[in-house]
Amino acid sequence: MNQYDLNQNYILPLPEPEHEIALETKNLEVFYGAKQAFFAGNLKFERYKITSLIGASGCGKSTYLRSLNRMNDGIGTVKGQILYRDLDINGPDINVYELRKHIGMVFQRPNPFSKSIKENITFALKENGLKDKEKLAEIVEESLKKAALWDEVKDDLNKSALALSGG
Ligand SMILES: Nc1ncnc2c1ncn2[C@@H]1O[C@H](COP(=O)(O)OP(=O)(O)O)[C@@H](O)[C@H]1O
Ligand SMILES: [Mg+2]
C-alpha cells in the first residue's frame, strides 16, 4: 500500500521539460502472473501532440496505457522503464496520487459516482477545500458548457448522474 498521507499536498520532484518528449517507455514489458501481456514497448510521446495506439483486440493496448499512471499496480508486473519528463514513474519516491494528477485517463465506458450531476463535478474541488457555493456553481456551469451538456442538464443538476446517457 502507498504510505503517503492523502491530506498532504506532495509535489512530484519533476525536472523542467528539456525536450519535446513528455512521456517515454523503454523496453517496457507487462506481465499478469507468468503471462506476458505487453511486449517491448519503446515509444515516445511528444508534448502537445495526440498519439494513437492501434492494434488487434488483446494485443496489450489497455495494459500499456494502464501502466502509464500505475493503474496496474498490484495486478501486473512491469519491466523496463516509464519516464515522465525524465522521471522514472516506478521509482521509490513516487507518490502515485500526485502522479495521477499529471497523467489521467478517460475510459470508453463512463464511470460517474452515484451522486448528483452537480456533486460529480464538484467532488474533487470540495475534497481539495473549495467551499464557496457561488464559485462552485460557476464551475459547474462552466464545465457543463465546455462539455456541451449545459442546455440538456441545467434543470437536472440535482438528479443522479447515473441517469445520464453514455454520450
Ligand atoms: N487483469 C488481467 N489479468 C490477466 N490477464 C489480463 C488482464 N487484463 C488483460 N489481460 C490479458 O492481457 C492481454 C492484453 O489485454 P489488453 O491489454 O486488455 O489488450 P487490448 O486493450 O489491446 O485489447 C490479453 O491477452 C488479456 O486477456
Ligand atoms: Mg483495451
Account of the 3D structure:
By secondary structure, the chain is α+β, with helices and mostly antiparallel strands. It has 2 domains: 21-102, no CATH class; 117-163, no CATH class. It has helices spanning 61-67, 96-102, 117-127, 133-146, 150-153, and strands spanning 21-32, 35-46, 77-84, 87-88. Strands 2-1-3-4 form a 4-stranded antiparallel sheet, covered by helices on one side. The two termini are 35 Å apart. The mean pLDDT is 88. Adenosine-5'-diphosphate is lined by residues 32, 35, 37, 55, 57-63, 75.
| Biggest sheet strand line-up | 2-1-3-4
What count of structural domains?
2
Mean pLDDT equals: 88
Shape: globular
How much of the sequence is in beta strands?
15-25%
Radius of gyration: 19 Å
From the structure above, extract its key features.
167 residues; alpha+beta; 2 domains; four-stranded antiparallel sheet; 5 helices; 4 strands; binds adenosine-5'-diphosphate; binds magnesium ion
